[in-house]
Structures are given as C-alpha cells and as structure tokens.
Amino acid sequence: MFDRIARVYDRMNSVMTAGMHHRWRERAADLARVGPGSRALDVGTGTGDLAIELARRGATVTGLDFAPAMLEVARGKAPDIAFERGDALALRYGDGEFDAVTVGFGARNFADLDRGLREMARVTKPGGRVVVLEITTPQRLPLSWFFRLWFDRAVPALGRLAGDPDAYTYLPSSVRRFPGPEELAGRMGAAGLDEVRWIVTAGGIIALHAGTRRA
User: What is the number of domains present in the chain?
Assistant: First the structure.
C-alpha cells in the first residue's frame, strides 16, 4: 500500500494538513535535541521529511523504512542521508547507537507498538531522546466533529481522486485505534524511557511525545 502511494504521498500530506505537516516535523526535530556530532535514526521515515529536518540541525541521520518506493522518493530528495530498508520491530542496529530516535506518523503502522517502542529505546544512548509524532483524535467539540467529518469523509474522497481509496480509508482507521496521548506516554515509559512529556497541538489533532532513554 505504501509503495503504491509513494508518488502522491507528499502532495496528499500537504493537501490534508494545509502544509502544516512540515511545521510539526520541525517541532519533532527540535524535541530530539540533536546537533553537529549527533547521530539520529528516523524510523518509518517514509519520504524522508523528518530525517531531513534532523539533518538540518547538523546530525548524521539514518532513515529507515520497509517500503522501497518510499525510500526511492526520500533518496531523490536528500541523497546525502543514508536511507535504508528495514523492520522497525527488529532494528539492525546495536544498543545505544543513536543520540536520538524519531518516528513521524509511522508508529500507528507498527504491527506491535510496544515492541517498536522498545526497539527505538534500545538503540538510543542512555540520556538520548526518543520522539513520536502522531495524529491523535481530538476530544472536544467542535473540532472532534470536524475531525470525524474530515477523516471519515473527506480523506477517503481525496484518496479516490489520488487513485488509491484503500490507502486513505486505512488512514482514519489507523488513527482511531492508536492510543491517546496519556496511554502512549505510559507505553513509552514501559519501553524504557523516563521523563516522557507530550504536547498536543493543532487544536488537538497532533501529539508530540518525547522521552529520555533510561540509563
């Protein structure tokens, strides 16, 4: 599915978020606290936008994804970043290899969320950062009503126009089954992270979580 939508993925993100997804990735990269001399891993990197934000801060970045067509797009955008194919649930890297590990709009696609979070924590250095950027479901009116209308009706319609209605029907269903901010913070803590904090922004639609790898 992700290979099928690779060529329209960036355009659809911009349409669905009015271009705000770039700002959310910038904030995620800020929370990773990387700079020159840092090593960062972006899991579920897709077309590479969060990896690119990390690299802009001076970090040496690896972007990992399981979809070859997504990686092909990413390499075309940032040939200086190492984009590799791999499994988020069985990261090929050693313990404590990275100063920061991020995932942007990919954690809800993990077949086993807790295992994926444990793997992200494992390859992070003690004291390093793990950052999760995800869509969340707003709880307050009127935004909760608008969110349901947009995601349940408009997004699948946009998917039909883009030629892949199944992919953009999957998107709202994956958001609905993903844990809310407080539960996700608890699961990050159980994965080996301390000081887990989260920010809910964009009127309650976007959640950014960050935690520190336990020593």
Answer: 1
Is the CB of residue 113 less than 8 Å from the CB of residue 132? no
Residue 159 placed within a domain: no
- Which residue range is the domain that position 189 belongs to? 2-135+178-213
The pLDDT tens digits for 48-79 are 999 999 999 999 999 999 999 999 999 999 99
| Nearest Cα to Cα of residue 119 among 92, 91, 100 | 91
Q: Specify the pTM.
A: 0.89
Amino acid residing at 167: A
3-state secondary structure of 170: helix
- Are the C-beta atoms of residues 57 and 29 closer than 8 Å to each other? yes
> For residue 184, what is the domain's CATH number?
3.40.50.150
- Runs of H (alpha helix) within the chain: 2-17, 21-32, 49-56, 68-77, 113-122, 143-149, 155-162, 165-177, 181-190
pLDDT digit string, tens, across residues 20-29: 999 999 999 9
Tens digit of each residue's pLDDT (9 = 90 or more) over 177-211: 899 999 999 999 999 999 999 999 988 889 999 99
* Structure token digits, residue 25: 């990735």
Is 191 within a domain? yes
> Within a domain: residue 171?
no
Distance CA 195, CA 7 (A): 38
Do the beta carbons of residue 1 and residue 170 sit within 8 Å? yes
CA–CA dist 169, 157 (Å, integer): 9
